[in-house]
Amino acid sequence: MKKIVTLILILISTSNLCAQNKKSTQMGQTSIKELQMPLYDKDSTANAVVLYEHANVYLDAEENYNTRTDYYYRIKIFNKNAFDLANIIVNLYKEKKIKDIMAISYNLVDGKINTTSLDKTKIFSLKEGDNWTVKKFTLPNIKEGTVIEYKYSIISPYLGLEDWVFQSKIPKIKSEYDAAILGNYKYNVRIIGFNKLDKDKPSIDKKCIFIDGLGQGACAVYAYGMYNIPAFKEEDYMLSKKNYLSRLSFDLESYHSPTGGVEKYTTTWAEADKKLKSQFFNNQLSKKRYFKKRIPLNILETPDDLEKAKKIYSFVQNHFTWNSNYWTSEDAKIKDAFLEKSGNVGEINLALFNSLQAADLNANLVVLSTRQNGIPTKLYPIIYDYNYVVVRTKINGINYYLDATEKFLPFGQLPIRTLNGEARIINFKEDGNWVKLKPLYNTVKNSNAKLILTETGDLTGTLKINNTGYYAAKQREKLATITQEAYLDDFEDKEIDIEVENYTVSGELELDKPLNETFDIKIFIAEDLGNTFRINPFLFDRFKENPFKLRERLYPVDFGHPINRNFAISLEVPANYNIVKIPENKSIQLPNKGGYFILNTNKEENKITVYTRFRIAKKTYSSAAYFALKELFKQIIISENSYIVLKKKA
Asked: Are strands 644-648 and 577-581 parallel, antiparallel or unpaired?
């Protein structure tokens, strides 16, 4: 959900209003020294570096005193992997417009600066839906070693100030933000991320504006900057990078009109709860009569409340197909969605909310921000930060959190995308409160193989896989969306040495029960080295690559939920072979009971057993635990690259 405050600037109609603005950066700053730069000395692996970028915000008298932001960028491109930085895309919301686009590419030719300017006919506009226009252009004559320089201005009639992002996927030498904001507009300014400001000089300009009949007016002047900013490097198991990128965020708190009135935009949570009901839920919370007529009577007459709630959840879950859209502030029409059997997150879960109330069950709405949308601030309510809504029902003193958009999740199990810190329970009769959402069911995968090694070096036997929690939901969805033949073909493609001779499955429809799969298999993986066989016993779900590669990670590691994976294999070998070597036992523990990896092996006459236990005990680990996690996965990879060695008896 875009954070846009769609309120027209009140002062634009005031006559004789003049605003003072700081000087914006001009084009033509590129030097021979920048063009000769072979690499960035603070990060020699960087494909490019931002030499300088600047945003300057002020009221523009020539644009009817709308807010103008002048943007300037100068970037050094070291190699072809950064050529995409020459493709510029600017998104414009509704009445915003762009002007004064200029772009120049600089190259060094025979020791002199050669410039190539953007052809204005190569600037393109594209309409995306009713609210957005996209402006695109590409800087010309891009080569390895080019410096690109461009600027443009955005004219906006809206009060909301866009975030200024200091950090990106490439390093930056200098990034600055200046703004002159009318004193009667008060913003909460937040500094987000791990890098500190090098320039932080807010001030007051008492002669910023002159209003006819009111006299001089003041501006709040913001002046921020960061220098030598390292590139932000994404890695597996992280929440939205918005949580960690160094940036400025502006939240409009209030407006004081010249006549003395005050309009508050950042209020209390109690007032925000009311606004959610009237504005964001669009009066869709009183449809229980409609749903009471459409829920089967046998469900409504179920005597046990928990059983009744489960049936209502299943009814809504199977009636709707989620259209992959999240909750928005646009008009929700749950009656239309019910008839069409399709809707977004808001429409489906508001239908569930009304259905539970129609059955005289306790229900509340819970708003949240998804994992990829970012963690909203709790300092004050910014309701535009929330893009998702689920339902809580309380039965026999136990709270259950429900989301009917996923057809393969059991009652009480929320999708992984919702597990993003704390969510806000909306209680329209009293103050709401916060809750940390957690999975109801543990996510566990148990794999057990019983195999026999034949004289020809093939392994035959049975593999049983038992899944619960999110593992089970994922497998159920896969089994439901493709044929069994296609499913087994995919299994064999991933495990290229395995041939499935027979397959059975149970528990596909019992969402709150484990999913059990049995494979009769033949494996062609024993390495025949003359009189010796070499076998890797870790046949399935082996870790082949460490997900943690950074030298330093400042942001937390977030797995979404605890993980348990257990693997066991029993291998019988022919009597005419000696067991020469088996994998070494290993036990690795994470600090503070954070998890472990255990490998145990045993040999007894002609039988070898190997089992592993892998556990990630927590959802989130601090950056301080990063190196322990990195070492854990390193040792797992080493262990699972071990072999059983068999030698034929003389």
From this structure: antiparallel
Name residue 647's beta-bridge partners. Answer: 532, 578
H or E element, residue 216? strand 215-229
pLDDT value of position 273: 74
Under DSSP, the state recorded for 81 is G
Instruction: For domain 269-436, give the fold.
Output: C8orf32 fold (3.10.620)
Strand order in the sheet with 644-648: 527-528, 532-535, 644-648, 577-581
Check residue 279 and report its DSSP letter.
Answer: I
Listed in order, the ranges of the chain carrying CATH 3.10.620.30 are 269-436
pTM score, whole prediction: 0.87
Tens of pLDDT, residues 227-263: 999 999 999 999 999 999 999 998 888 877 766 677 7
Q: Which DSSP symbol is given to 316?
A: H
pLDDT in tens, 335-363: 899 999 999 999 999 999 999 999 999 99
Classify residue 335 by its DSSP letter: H
- Residue 547 φ then ψ, to 5°: -70, -10
CA gap 446, 466 in Å, rounded: 5
Q: Which two tokens stand for residue 395?
A: 């039965």
* Pair of tokens at residue 154: 């955005």
Beta-bridge partners for 533: 528, 646
Q: Give SS3 for 338.
A: helix
In the structure encoding, which two tokens stand for residue 605, read together? 């006459």
CATH code for the domain defined by 10-258: 2.60.40.3140
State the sign of the Cα–Cα–Cα–Cα dihedral 618, 545, 498, 578: negative
Residue 51: both structure tokens together = 């030499």
The 8-class DSSP code of residue 110 comes to T
Average pLDDT over residues 443-457: 91
Please name the CATH architecture into which domain 444-648 falls: Sandwich (2.60)
User: First-to-last CA distance in the chain?
Assistant: 73
Distance CA 179, CA 620 (A): 37
How far, in Å, CA of 155 to CA of 568, rounded? 64
CB 98 within 8 A of CB 70: no
Please report which helix (H) or strand (E) contains residue 334, including its range. Answer: helix 334-340
Q: Report pLDDT digits (tens) over 263-276.
A: 777 667 777 777 76
- Quick count: other Cβ atoms within 10 Å of Cβ 78? 20
Please report which confidence band the pLDDT of residue 15 belongs to, taking 50, 70 and 90 as the band edges: very low
User: How many whole angstroms separate alpha carbon 465 and alpha carbon 517?
Assistant: 5
The pairing of strands 215-229 and 199-200 is antiparallel
pLDDT computed for residue 10 by the predictor: 35
Q: In this predicted structure, what is the pLDDT of residue 331?
A: 61
* CATH 2.60.120.1130 segments of the chain: 444-648
Give the CA count within 13 Å in the CB-facing half-sphere of 599: 17
